[in-house]
Write a structure and sequence with these properties.
mainly alpha, 6 helices
Length: 99
């Protein structure tokens, strides 16, 4: 795979996410070992992994709707509430159907 063929879900990750994936691989996928590497609890690492999974799924599923993807990403990162995200996405989808 050449540099021009990097999947969009990888490109959607920030540097902290990529570092997390690197450490995850180095630790053979062990969340327990990863928690030790980050000096945090297992549940903290699990939450981080769950959010990363959500980001990757969003990047894969919403490539045709970048605004929806951005809204969902903001909700995952807790920069906006889930309710606000739903309202924005519903409004966006309604306006797209009206065109």
């Amino acid at each position: 795979m050449g540099k021009g063929n990097i999947p969009s879900w990888i490109l959607s990750l920030d540097s902290e996410d990529i570092e997390f994936v690197r450490k995850f691989i180095i630790n053979s996928g062990s969340l327990k070992d990863l928690a030790k590497a980050y000096n945090v609890s297992y549940p903290t690492v699990r939450i981080r992994l769950d959010r990363l999974i959500q980001k990757i799924e969003l990047a894969q599923n919403d490539e045709s709707k970048p605004l929806v993807s951005l809204i969902k990403k903001l909700a995952i990162e807790e920069r906006i509430t889930l309710e606000d995200a739903r309202l924005l996405i519903d409004k966006y989808n309604a306006e797209r159907k009206g065109k």
